Records
---
Amino acid sequence: MNILFKQTTISGIPVSNRIIRSATHDGLADSDGAPSDKLISKYEHLAGNGIGCIITGYAAVSRNGVSPYPAMMKIFDDGVIEKYKMLTDAVHKNGTPVILQLAHCGRQTSSKAIGMQKVAPTNVLHSFYPDKAKVLTDGEILGIIDDFVAAAVRAEKAGFDGVQLHGGHGYLLHDFLSPYGNRRNDRWGGSTENRCRIVELIIKGIKEKTNLPVWIKFSAEDNRKNGMNIDSSVEICQRLEAAGYDAIEVSCGTVQDGMNTMRSELLPMDAVFRYREPCASFPKFLNKIALPAAKLINPLIRQPKPLENFNVANAAIIKSSVSIPVIVVGGIHKAADMEQILSDGKADFISMCRPFICEPDLAKKLANGQTEAKCIMCNYCGLVIEKEPTRCLYGRVKN
Ligand SMILES: Cc1cc2nc3c(=O)[nH]c(=O)nc-3n(C[C@H](O)[C@H](O)[C@H](O)COP(=O)(O)O)c2cc1C
Ligand code: SF4
């Protein structure tokens, strides 16, 4: 272990190693969207166990950009700053930096969940959230840019070390970047320059109003017709670097894409029937027939491959095209792979989500010689968030 656990800096922020907790929705915000005491303790525990840097779960910047999952963090008014400050103080006690992830869910929510019509660059049908999105006007897009900037100003007041825009996984900024979600022919759509305009104006605003480093997470490929692919992603990343972004985290997929962003060998059927609608509301007698049938066909449903290190190849291509730090996430769970990715120069930092849900003290364990994470990437945790706080359900719900 020489590169992984070497002290370094990222965007000028000192870090004790190159292991980052990738953004993970915890479902533990209070009714105002501020971190609850439980969430603060969770972060304090994570920070006290050897992690290099924490990226928070996504926090909504606008009222119409909230997730359908319960207890998402929100940062669209000043009343929440004090609670966020308690979170950063708790994490900083251990000298660990913490980055706030800022998001707008766009089409990937339901109007019922947010209490108003959801919005998008274009009204493209979402198979999981089929209600119609309102197409954003020019003025409304400028309003959302202001919301991101105002959220970053609050993040700075709350003591965060930086912000990360959620530009991937099918959320609003992903939809703007991708020709699949963005079919506009005004100044926000069409050419790469136009599709990138929103993220370029957001960083311009944040840099004018704060001193925070600004990172972005995005999906280098998304498996959508005319969607994101590695060639267009390289061009986008070069624009992001020129616009002033301080680091890029390479991910993939959209929520619509099933288990692409977070891959598993099988769909977690028991969890699907327990937590995902409409299955979760099936009458019990129907479940008795439907669940065994679903399990029977489960091995026949093709899942995205490979299951491990699945964004590393794209991260390496992006890293060779930009000079800002590249973080890679997705199916990374072996210490030897982490070391190899870094020593081969395929990425500058390793980030993980599910392994830290399973073992919040994983970084310390790896430093002490554990060779791989215990998380078996079964994805039960990815379903529980539809109804309850995030937790590892491995061994508690059978597949
Ligand atoms: C329970 C859960 C919550 C997640 N929440 C977020 C989030 O808030 N923001 C985000 O960018 N990605 C989120 N993700 C995606 C992860 O950050 C990560 O990109 C994906 O799980 C692949 O990494 P892994 O193989 O290390 O889990 C979430 C994933 C899971 C399983
Ligand atoms: S439920 Fe636990 S073991 Fe399964 S993917 Fe999530 S964290 Fe890993």
---
Amino acid sequence: MLKVLVASSKGGAGKSTLATNLAAYYAVEGKNTVLVDADRQGSGLRWCQRRAQHADAVLGLPGTRRDWDKPIPPDAQRVVVDSPAGIRPDEVEAYLDKVAAVLVPVLPSAIDLEATEPFLNDLAGLGRVRRGKVAVGLVANRLKPWTNASQLAVEEMRRFPFPVVAQLRDTQGYVLANALGKSIFDYHSELVRSHQQDWASLVRWLKKHS
Ligand SMILES: Nc1ncnc2c1ncn2[C@@H]1O[C@H](COP(=O)(O)OP(=O)(O)OP(=O)(O)O)[C@@H](O)[C@H]1O
Ligand SMILES: [Mg+2]
């Protein structure tokens, strides 16, 4: 059972977008998939409810309690945990015994990079991360690749203590799909397929660390 935590100290960086799309990717692949929503805002759970009427449902479970993993069915193959904004490194540490990898979405702006750097440095100091038991990957999110700002931001991210495992572009596709309980992996137009390609390196990286 592969368990992945999506976390960031920064609000609005794309944690729920990343968590729901990753969960849908695995569900579409045929894996029994659970989305644990550790955010009291509950946007992940509501997405699971919307998705329940479609094929490739994802089981949504609340994750605000310490024993969040107890209700996970034993036949679950993939578990994605969405966490709230403002999570502290010691709160992240509480998850690290139970997950194989942490994904941190980062937006391409100086404000976001500056706000995220101390969080990443704290993560790098946690025992299980230091000992290589838990892998941490950065996901550059909402990129507009044709802009200088996005290109520079990705360069900046490469100086952080963890690898950039995916570069996701800004597209309304994520916004529209989420509202319907869907993901970009539920559509097959040429445009959507090009956004699906953005995830290939992330999925490969997770496979390596599972
Ligand atoms: N790649 C993207 N392209 C376009 N819009 C995006 C993308 N990623 C996220 N968004 C939008 O940005 C907003 C914030 O994203 P999201 O809710 O996933 O962030 P979050 O980190 O979970 O926020 P919070 O800290 O409030 O939990 C949402 O409106 C979402 O639809
Ligand atoms: Mg969220």
